[in-house]
Amino acid sequence: MVTSVQGSTSTAASQATSNAAQIGATQDRFLKLLVTQMKNQDPLNPMDNAQVTSQMAQLSTVTGIDKLNSTVEALSASMLASQSLSAVSMIGHPVLVAGTQIDLANSQGDAAVELTQPVDNLMVSISDTSGNVVRTLNMGAQQSGLANIQWDGRTDTGSIATDGKYSFSAVSTLGGNKSDATTLSYGMVNSVAQSQGGVTVNVGQLGEVSLNSIKKIL
User: Fold this and answer.
1) Using CA atoms, how far apart are residues 87 and 22, in angstroms rounded to an integer?
2) What average pLDDT does the structure give for the chain?
3) Coil, strand, or helix at residue 156?
4) Shortest CA distance to 7 belongs to which of 108, 58, 77?
5) CA–CA dist 104, 93 (Å, integer)
6) Which residues contact 101 (CB under 8 A, 6 or more apart)?
7) Tell me: the pLDDT tens digits for 62-96?
8) Are 198 and 80 in contact (CB under 8 A)?
9) Is the Cβ–Cβ distance between 60 and 171 less than 8 Å?
């Protein structure tokens, strides 16, 4: 993984060098064309100074745009490398991402719900692998943001559920109407990868997620 990040830094430097070479080549071609025009101009109808000035201004504009593009690309590559280095430090740590899975271990299960606004009531239903609801949690009124779910492993009948994987869903209401609620699951970061779309993180069974989609790191 460190090699991958080092490679991205090297790629950024190579890209910057390539862009600089392209800008230099554009300037050379323009100047050669301008000199050729001046050499072959009609002595009885020479090029107007305003025309030469206009062409030089065009060169300056094109060069400026090329340099701006080169700078933006270099900054983008640098930010991608920086994100990768930051993401590497998350390997081996639990993170909170969008998902419906909740793992019960030693009669303790943790997850969360993201709310876009305060709600009057939040109901969470936890189901086993067969889809049967084993526990319903009435979490009452909640503020906007992350609402943590802590399941003690007890079912609605009072028995202790077997450790393992469960799923959960959430329904929130505000003024008697349903409100947005996004379920979030904890997963362990296994690896980090780079792609044209940005930095992605492998969170085990929760799959590949973008770095920006991670809500919390433990």
Assistant:
1) 33
2) 79
3) coil
4) 77
5) 18
6) 111, 165, 166, 167, 168, 185, 187, 205, 206
7) 666 666 566 656 555 555 556 566 677 788 889 99
8) yes
9) no
